[in-house]
Amino acid sequence: MRLVVGCALLLVALVGCAGGGDVRVDGSSTVYPISLAVAEEFSILNPTANVSVSFSGTGGGLSKLCRGEIDIAGASRVIETSELAACAENGIGVIELPVAADAITVVVHPEDDWADCLDLGALRAIWEPGSSVTTWSDVEPGWPDEEIVLFGPGADSGTFDYFTEAVNGSAGATRTDFFPSEDDNVLVQGVRSDRFALGYFGFAHYAENRGAVRAVAVDGGDGCVLPTPETIEANSYSPLSRPLFVYVATRSLEKEAAAELAAFYLSDEARGLVSGSGYVAYPDQVYEAATARLANRVTGSAFQDFEPGDSVLGAVRAR
User: Which domain holds residue 12?
Assistant: First the structure.
């Protein structure tokens, strides 16, 4: 309890003082709305800080972090051991901070009146490498004998890695005849433009475009479940619920503005920004545990063995 209180006081102190300087944030397009909202609010509170936020995908952002080109990388998957090693080779320690809960949302055109729920077997049949599924009737007899037009994140996306591992059993394992993009807005536009389209991306982009696309319930073995803030928080939208992270370079914490911004991601104010961005904030204990990791400069990943359904709080307290 003393540690938590001490860290909370440190967080207040960090966020409450003004610090100037440049801070560079890049990475996941899924985490981008959170980082953008956090940066905008932080800049209001700290007008001498200059925070730039962009997205190049989880893999692209982590590569830049390990090369020392940015200070904070947003990630929609857990950092890989090879990425940690690349950072270490350049003398860069990395602190892992879970900032929000998300759900990879499977979407179709709003006029699709047949695919209300897909189980993991159907999703795997559609997306697995070498898939023979070309039409909706290949998925379910009686569904339209029309080609499924597929849209999904590109290979640099953490959403791509998480989805392919959860559905196909291996990160990166997928059919190749789909339209990829690192920009979720492109995916939304692709699905909304074709009645027979299917795609997937983060929950916030679905929430922003409910009229343009329709979410499909997923049956992970316990019945059909739609992604909602409630099912994400309860972790019942499985296996496509997941934590979202920011990874902070320890050397960047020598810059006052970067240290303050990292702390601000875990503040009470930021939790409201998480919800406003369309994602789900964790209980206070998760952010308190993450604050302790940041205050104690705990590097590496506590989520390497994390599986859908595991306790985020248990993982973040693990080290």
Answer: 2-100+244-316
Q: What is the pLDDT of residue 16?
A: 42
Residue 259 tokens, joined? 């240290």
Write out the E strands in 146-206.
149-153, 179-181, 197-202
DSSP 8-state symbol, 17: S
The model's pTM: 0.83
Q: Is the peptide bond before 129 cis (omega within 30 degrees of 0)?
A: no
Residue 309 is predicted with a pLDDT of 67
Is the same domain home to 168 and 207? yes
Do residues 228 and 308 both lie within one domain?
Answer: no
What is the DSSP-derived secondary structure letter of residue 137? H
Domain boundary among 213, 233, 253: 233
The angle at the Cα of 162, spanning 158 to 168, to the nearest 5 degrees, equals 135
- How many CA within 13 A on the CB side of residue 68? 6
Whether 35 and 129 map to the same domain: the answer is no
Long-range contact pairs involving 207-215 (C-beta distance under 8 Å, separation at least 24): 207/278, 208/278, 211/110, 212/110, 212/188, 213/107, 213/108, 213/109, 213/110, 213/188, 214/107, 214/108, 214/109, 214/110, 214/112, 215/105, 215/106, 215/107
What pLDDT, on the 0 to 100 scale, is given for residue 188? 97
Name the burial class of residue 254, with classes exposed (0-12), middle (13-18) and buried (19+) by CB atoms within 10 angstroms of its CB: exposed
288 and 167 in a common domain = no
Give the model's pLDDT for residue 313. Answer: 84
Inside any domain, residue 239:
no
Q: Is residue 178 part of a domain?
A: yes
Query: Average pLDDT of 299-306?
Result: 92
Count of CB atoms situated within 10 Å of the CB of 156: 20
| Number of folded domains that form the chain | 2
Structure-block tokens of residue 131:
């898939």
Query: Could you report the per-residue pLDDT of 75-130, keeping only the tens digit for each?
Result: 999 999 999 999 999 999 999 999 999 999 999 999 999 999 999 999 999 999 99
Domain annotation covers residue 296 = yes
